[in-house]
Design a protein that fits this description.
- With about 650 residues, the chain is an alpha/beta fold.
- It is about 40% helix and about 20% strand.
- The chain is built from 20 helices and 24 strands.
- The strands form five sheets. Strands 3-2-1-4-5-6 form a six-stranded parallel β-sheet, with helices on both faces.
- Helix 1 (about 30-40) crosses helix 18 (about 520-530), helix 6 crosses helix 18 (about 520-530) and helix 10 crosses helix 11 (about 325-335).
- The two termini are about 30 Å apart.
Length: about 650
């Protein structure tokens, strides 16, 4: 079918269009939809799509995207389909749907048509993806779930999501958490009840604003606006003067509005070390011991073992109290437990009948240990408990409940487990492959198709610290969030939602909640990879996406000859660090010489919106040594970046 939606008749093919340097997206899932929007709206490049079925998944919405050149329907990536989308002259292709092995086969076929094409693969198996990158030329392998998982985990733990840049970690701070050593202001007009008012990357003022702000700061009668946040222009960094002025203006508005609606501020800051999870060591030890014991025993065996251990310990303390010899008491207890009781031992009369009763109890407890150990061994080996999901123990508390063990749910559960935080998973589909991964990591999994409130109670949601709902169904995720809130009103909720308007209503209605979208978080990274840009990571500002990218000024690129002012004047971009060609190992944060033009080999680290990075990508090299220019087109977005970055 063509862009206008007209179906092709069987046995007929469209006339070949003379098109080159376009991009191809294979898939009809949410990531494919977001990626096509990313390429057409923010990078303004021609795109063709291959969908499995024009009536399924997001294919109908893909067909209606303005600027999409062509849509081809094909169950697999065949040679005929590749010819229809002119793969031989394409600039890049993204394979974001299907199994890993199918995408590898398709990538090999694509490079057979065009050896120079840029190939971007969405791979769940990251290690396999790294090997494929070495096998194929000009190939990048990304995992959408791995890209998005940290945002879900950090949202549940209420710690900032960070991106590592060199030896530092860049993160977004809000309002009172903003410090005077911030890098730049990345958002203002934040209204948590109406996220459509947020302004990501506030437009930079003119270059004269830097000098005006400094003159105001150092004049004898200058008055620094008071603020409840350290965002007034109180730094001596000239590069941040424009941002500081914007922040001071927003903060002044905030002080005039006691409710703070629409006037919150977010800023980019750095840490020398990533924030650690504050879980006491004794809590970690208790969780590990209880979890390990639960792994080898069932509920009834645990009751018998606990009772026998308590009885033996009480008897041990009784004998010790009468004999006053710890070594002799240990010796006697071990013999009694082994069945070698000595009723006429010396000193037995000192304890009288109490000591004899204690010896009898220890003996019976010892006799019980042999069949108990046998029962545990049979339970583990004969019933195959290693491959079976297990329910959480009665002592499970202060844990995170993860609902859904698809690709993203499995990544989230694995990441939480690596952090040492206790968790319990909930999955309705007993065939989900994430269950096997959870069992291999010894993570409790509640499996069943019953009511969600029953599943959450089995997962001990009433004793949990947070809920992460990451199924593929927005309605199922919302159901889990509402049921969890009904059981425990104060639980922290992180919910996966695709629909942006739906997410805004959730923010406005539910308290202590965060909303994330896998496709929102991962699509910018896939688009940048198609453009051969190195995106270090993505940061969420509520439902908006901020990209942290490192760009190299190569010969023939538009970056050569640009200074920091030129880069930021494009809109939606802030230069936060510079690496000079003669000092490649040194990150110069907020590089002071903003007028210095980039030479070949210089690198800049930028925080950018999706459209801001797209504008930088289309910047053309300078002609005759002048300033680099961007080829602007009709309908080009406002270079100020106001309102940009909506997820």
């Amino acid at each position: 079918m063509t862009r206008d939606g007209g179906p092709q008749s069987a046995g007929q093919s469209e006339p070949a269009q003379q098109i080159a340097d376009h991009f191809i997206v294979v898939g009809s899932n949410a990531l494919a939809l977001r990626l096509i929007l990313e390429l057409t709206e923010h990078y303004e490049v021609p795109v063709m799509a291959i969908v499995q079925d024009r009536t399924e998944d997001h294919a109908p919405r893909i067909a209606q995207i303005p600027g999409l050149v062509k849509v081809v329907e094909s169950r697999t990536v065949t040679d005929e389909a590749l010819r229809e989308v002119s793969a031989s002259t394409a600039r890049g292709i993204a394979l974001v749907s299907g199994e890993d092995q199918d995408k590898i086969h398709a990538a090999l076929s694509v490079q057979g048509h065009n050896p120079q094409i840029r190939v971007v693969l969405r791979m769940f198996n990251e290690r396999l993806g790294q090997q494929i990158e070495k096998l194929l030329t000009n190939c990048a392998s990304l995992s959408g779930s791995a890209t998005a998982a940290p945002a879900f985990v950090n949202g549940a733990l209420q710690r900032p999501n960070s991106v590592q840049v060199g030896e530092r970690f860049v993160y977004v701070a809000y309002d009172d958490d903003i410090q005077s050593n911030r890098l730049c202001v990345v958002a203002d007009r934040i209204d948590r009840q109406d996220l459509s008012r947020i302004r990501l990357m506030p437009g930079t003022a003119s270059r004269a604003a830097d000098f005006i702000a400094l003159a105001t700061r150092y004049s004898p009668d200058a008055t620094i606006p008071s603020s409840r946040t350290p965002t007034s222009p109180d730094t001596a960094h000239a590069p941040n003067a424009a941002d500081a002025a914007d922040a001071a203006d927003a903060t002044t508005q905030h002080s005039n509005n006691p409710d703070g609606a629409g006037n919150g501020i977010a800023a980019l800051q750095t840490l020398s070390n990533e924030l650690r999870i504050s879980i006491p060591w004794f809590a970690r030890l208790r969780w590990r011991l209880v979890d390990t014991f639960r792994y080898f025993t069932g509920a009834r065996l645990r009751v018998v073992t606990a009772f026998a251990s308590a009885a033996a310990l009480a008897s041990f303390l009784t004998i010790w109290a009468f004999n006053h010899s710890f070594i002799w008491t240990v010796y006697t207890t071990l013999l009694d437990m082994a069945g070698a009781a000595q009723p006429d031992q010396p000193g037995a009369g000192t304890g009288g009948w109490w000591q004899r009763v204690a010896q009898v109890i220890i003996t019976f407890c010892g006799v019980t240990c042999v069949p108990l150990a046998t029962a545990i061994l049979v339970d583990v080996l004969a019933s195959g408990r290693r491959g079976q999901p297990k329910d959480p123990g009665s002592g499970t508390s202060d844990h995170i409940v993860v609902v859904g063990l698809g690709n993203i749910g499995t990544r989230v559960a694995t990441l939480i487990h690596e952090l040492g935080v206790p968790l319990v998973c909930v999955e309705r589909n007993p065939e989900s492959r994430g269950i096997a991964t959870a069992c291999a990591l010894n993570i409790p999994v509640v499996v069943g198709d019953g009511p969600m409130d029953d599943l959450l109670r089995r997962a001990r949601i009433h004793r949990s610290r947070a809920l992460i709902a990451v199924t593929r169904d927005d309605a199922a995720n919302l159901e889990a969030a509402l049921e969890a809130r009904a059981i425990q009103p104060g639980v922290r909720i992180v919910i996966r939602l695709f629909d942006d308007d739906f997410a805004h209503h959730v923010y406005a209605t539910l308290g202590n909640v965060a909303s994330r979208s896998v496709s929102y978080l991962s699509a910018p990274a896939f688009a940048a990879a198609l453009m051969s840009r190195e995106v270090l990571g993505t940061l969420s500002v509520f439902r908006h996406v901020l990209l942290i990218a490192e760009l190299t000024a190569t010969e023939g690129s538009g970056l050569v000859g640009m200074n920091q002012h030129d880069v930021e004047d494009l809109g939606g971009i802030r230069v936060i660090a510079v690496r000079l060609a003669h000092q490649p190992g040194t990150y110069m944060w907020n590089y002071a010489d903003r007028a210095r033009r980039l030479a070949i080999g210089d690198r800049i680290v930028v925080a950018a919106t999706r459209s801001g990075l797209g504008r930088l990508n289309t910047t053309q090299p300078a002609a005759g040594g002048g300033d680099p220019v961007r080829q602007r087109t009709a309908g080009d977005p406002d270079p100020s970046g106001a309102g940009d970055g909506r997820s």
